Amino acid sequence: MRKKSDLPTKTCPVCGRPFTWRKKWARDWDNVIYCSERCRRSKS
Ligand SMILES: [Zn+2]
Fold this sequence. Notes:
1 helix; binds zinc ion; alpha+beta; about 10% helix; about 45 residues; 2 strands; two-stranded antiparallel sheet
C-alpha cells in the first residue's frame, strides 16, 4: 500500500532544506539536486 506521504525526498545542498518528489520531476528525479530553479542558479 502506498501513502501519499510516502513520496521520496532529497535535501537541497544550497538551502539545506528537504524537498519532496514532485510530479514534474517524475521522469527526472534521479537528476534533481536542487529544490528549485532559484537554488540551482545560486549554486555557482
Ligand atoms: Zn534549495
